[in-house]
Amino acid sequence: LGRLMFELPEEMGLIAVAGRQTQGKGRGGNVWLSPVGCALSTLHITIPLHSNLGQRIPFIQHLVSLAVVEAVRSIPGYEDIDLRVKWPNDIYYSDLMKLGGVLVNSTLIETTFHILIGFGFNVNNSNPTICINDLIRRLNREEGTELQPLSADCLIARTVTVLERLIDVFQEKGPNGVLPRYYKYWVHSGKQVRLGSEDGPTAWIVGIDDYGYLQVHEEGKGVESVHPDGNSFDMLRNLIVPK
């Protein structure tokens, strides 16, 4: 796609869908193996540099994460499936288990960003952790509902459609047009972290700033932004740590 995206007419969309992947790329050079039963896709989009989103490109990974969650939770009857977003680029079951992730690569050519969005999430594999259809079956048992399992193809299509609408809203209204929806599904509200190390100062997560970076409040120092390219949020140790 990295070569094709520069050769196609501007109005033509481009997406690759894989049944399985053996050399998927993650953040920090991680390699991902994904079996059949996952929703795996790379999408090409263009964003004008001189636009709301073009001036805040880091927000794209948040919009994609939100689109994945809303692809499920916007289906009538599926609103209580506990899929959530974890800053900066993960899809979670509650705040317990990772179900998927997003990776964004952008190239600026003149005044247009060419962006490749890779996203993958577990739809139908119960091992080694949990999948979306497990969550549906669990809700059916607990609530007596009869929700049908979802397919990877359906959820890829829904994710792309929801993302398209989110981008339109962001271009029209900026961050405030989408952040209320993002906060509705994220796992970090009111969470306490330590900065730098396990013995570092305590801070509280506040939200996301106008450029998509995490905001934390350290007592006596006010609100500071933490950049995802230089930090990772470690849910297991409850830290924001420099990489």
UniProtKB/TrEMBL annotation:
GO molecular function, one term: biotin--[biotin carboxyl-carrier protein] ligase activity
Annotated GO CC locations: cytoplasm
Keywords: Ligase
CDD domains reported in the protein's UniProt record: BPL
InterPro entries per the UniProt record, alphabetical: aa-tRNA-synth_II/BPL/LPL, Biotin_CoA_COase_ligase, BPL_C, BPL_LPL_catalytic
Top-rank taxon: Eukaryota
Residues of the BPL/LPL catalytic domain: 1-171
Family: Belongs to the biotin--protein ligase family.
Protein name: BPL1 ligase
Organism: Campylorhamphus procurvoides
